[in-house]
């Protein structure tokens, strides 16, 4: 008995001494005091030093996009640090290009505040807010895609059609980490007290949460809006929209914006899917076709064997080559996987669509 | 205590009882970080530093706390605790006062916690019943030996990187084969001194 007691005591004593030393070191050596954080040379905050730039900014209600939750793997949280950032860390290097290094871009989740620091961020990030939302509608539109509507309560969200928000998936059974994942908004910009998202099941942490654990009435944290993929009022030329699967979301938002504002540009929406069961939102698209005389929806199926399908077969780039005329005057908005976007861009180039008018969101 | 001059232990731990070539300890970081000479040297320096401090600390803890209470069987847990805490402490101190070195070592510093050469040296020190000076020389020597081995490997690998190697052998397989050949070469030193 006494052996057990002494053993426990000795081990506890050693552990406590080590813990005490580390705590003392953290209070003294690891204490960087208060530092001054200046954003865009106008806003100044006095913040606690020693933590990362990303979490400090989040505490100050400035939201920088970040999909991996500060692990330094997604590379979304880049900000320009003009003064006081210290040297670039080895953990940042793989995610920064040469041009970004020259421009003093840093990963804000890795860069620690140790001295007064000055950073530059795009003005529109000040518009980013965190919302405590409630799921009010959840509907399975295909076997793998859910259409969700989140109520923001009194809060108001101002975004441009095509932008995305980040949804926080909390820890749940079988997953003990909190993650933020980006989803494009499918609802209208005039629908200011709610947002709608299309979320496909991939087996990942956040999509598993949404598909298997989330129910109507649950509370979800959402922050946004982010992104430079949105509708441009450039000219009145024809528009090519293209997407597949959940890539329909930002395009729906763009179409809603056009129908709300009576923008009747000649528009074709190319949608890629495998079979007829992967097509969804057809009523909504039909409504746009009635409301906007210039709008046409073309679905291209790659693996439909049924003879009932009269539409295009194959891949989206083939349909683009077949249907697009006067590519020189078109603008294009694409949303899909990197491989799909690359092949569509190739087809658009062939149709002479100007590169600076091709906007895309790769996910 | 065995009667070997500390300096002999020092030389032997670099060459004849090299942590990598005769004990094959600390292989994971040896394989992962031996692509370029500067990073390999950085890790070598960090390992040497951590090794020297933690082995001495473990010596004190073992002979002054564990042995008097008859708790030798707990040495594995206690040694790992001491190593982990020390690496954490060293990281904090370096981040504050030696930031150039801290940034140069980057991710390697925390990785050292799980380097088995560090624990191995502490366990050898107990198994071979070294006294304080012998322990100190053994730990510094082992650290230098490890640094030497990884730097030599990085040199060879950076030369090899320009050659065409069959795909299945690229990376870890070639490194292991080369390690074996280098270990054979290090046997050549064995006539010099012997401590195990």
Condensed summary:
The complex is a heterodimer of chains A (363) and B (196). Chain A is of the alpha/beta class.
Written overview of the protein:
Chain A is built from eight helices and 17 strands. Chain A starts with a helix and ends with a strand. Chain B has nine helices and no strands. In chain B, helix 3 crosses helix 4. The radius of gyration of chain B is 17 Å and the shape is globular. In chain B, 39% of the residues are buried. The model of chain B has no long low-confidence stretch (mean pLDDT 88).
Helices, strands, pairings?
The complex is a heterodimer of chains A (363) and B (196).
Chain A (H helix, E strand, L loop, with lengths): L1 H27 L5 E6 L3 E6 L4 H7 L18 E6 L14 H5 L2 E3 L9 E4 L8 E12 L4 E7 L12 E6 L9 E6 L9 E7 L4 H9 L5 E8 L12 E6 L3 H13 L6 E7 L8 H10 L3 E7 L10 E2 L2 H8 L7 E6 L1 H13 L7 E5 L1
Parallel strand pairs in A: 1-5, 12-13, 12-16, 13-14, 14-15, 16-17
Antiparallel strand pairs in A: 1-2, 3-4, 3-5, 6-7, 6-11, 7-10, 8-9, 8-11
Helix pairs in contact in A: 7-8
Chain B lengths: L5 H9 L12 H6 L4 H30 L8 H23 L1 H7 L2 H4 L4 H12 L4 H29 L11 H16 L9
Helix pairs in contact in B: 1-8, 3-4, 3-7, 3-8, 4-5, 4-7, 7-8
């Amino acid at each position: 008995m006494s052996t057990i007691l002494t053993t426990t005591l000795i081990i506890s004593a050693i552990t406590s001494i080590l813990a005490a030393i580390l705590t003392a070191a953290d209070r003294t050596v690891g204490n960087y005091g208060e530092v001054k954080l200046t954003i865009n040379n106008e806003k100044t905050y006095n913040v606690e030093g020693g933590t990362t730039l990303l979490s400090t900014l989040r505490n100050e209600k400035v939201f920088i996009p970040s999909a991996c939750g500060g692990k330094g793997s997604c590379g979304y949280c880049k900000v320009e640090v003009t003064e006081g950032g210290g040297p670039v860390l080895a953990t940042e290097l793989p995610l920064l290009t040469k041009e970004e290094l020259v421009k003093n871009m840093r990963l804000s989740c890795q860069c620690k505040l140790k001295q007064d620091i000055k950073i530059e961020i795009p003005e529109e990030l000040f518009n980013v807010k965190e919302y405590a939302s409630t799921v009010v509608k959840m509907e399975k539109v295909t076997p793998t895609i859910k259409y969700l509507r989140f109520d923001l309560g009194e809060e108001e969200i101002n975004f441009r059609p095509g932008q995305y928000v980040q949804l926080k998936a909390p820890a749940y059974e079988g997953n003990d980490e909190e993650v933020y994942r980006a989803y494009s908004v499918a609802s209208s910009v005039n629908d200011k007290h709610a947002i709608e998202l299309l979320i496909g099941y991939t087996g990942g942490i956040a999509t598993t949460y949404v598909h298997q654990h989330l129910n109507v009435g649950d509370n979800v944290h959402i922050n946004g809006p982010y992104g430079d993929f949105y509708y441009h009022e450039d000219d009145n030329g024809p528009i090519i929209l293209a997407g597949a699967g959940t890539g329909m979301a930002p395009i729906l938002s763009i179409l809603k914006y056009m129908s709300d504002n009576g923008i009747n540009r000649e528009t074709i929406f190319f949608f890629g899917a495998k079979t007829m069961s992967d097509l969804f939102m057809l009523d909504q698209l039909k409504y746009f076709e009635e409301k906007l005389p210039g709008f046409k929806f073309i679905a291209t199926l790659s693996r439909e064997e049924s003879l009932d399908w009269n539409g295009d077969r194959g891949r989206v780039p083939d349909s683009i080559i077949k249907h697009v005329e006067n590519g020189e005057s078109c603008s294009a908005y694409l949303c899909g996987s990197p491989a799909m976007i690359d092949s569509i861009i190739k087809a658009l180039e062939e149709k002479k669509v100007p590169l600076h008018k091709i906007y895309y969101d790769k996910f | 205590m065995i009667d070997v001059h500390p300096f002999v232990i020092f030389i032997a731990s670099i060459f004849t009882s090299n942590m990598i070539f005769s004990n094959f300890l600390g292989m994971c970081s040896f394989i992962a970080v031996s692509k370029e000479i500067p990073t390999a040297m950085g890790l070598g320096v960090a390992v040497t530093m951590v090794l020297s401090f933690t082995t001495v600390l473990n010596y004190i803890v073992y002979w002054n706390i564990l042995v008097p209470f008859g708790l030798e069987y707990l040495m594995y847990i206690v040694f790992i605790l001491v190593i982990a805490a020390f690496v954490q402490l060293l990281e904090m101190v370096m981040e504050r006062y030696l930031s150039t070195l801290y940034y140069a070592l980057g991710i390697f510093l925390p990785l050292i916690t799980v380097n088995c050469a560090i624990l191995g040296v502490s366990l050898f020190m107990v198994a071979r019943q070294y006294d304080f000076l012998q322990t100190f020389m053994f730990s510094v020597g082992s650290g230098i030996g490890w640094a030497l081995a990884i730097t030599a490997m990085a040199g060879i690998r950076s030369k090899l990187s320009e050659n065409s190697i069959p795909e299945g052998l690229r990376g870890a397989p070639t490194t292991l084969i080369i390690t074996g050949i280098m270990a054979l070469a290090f046997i050549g030193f064995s006539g010099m001194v012997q401590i195990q």
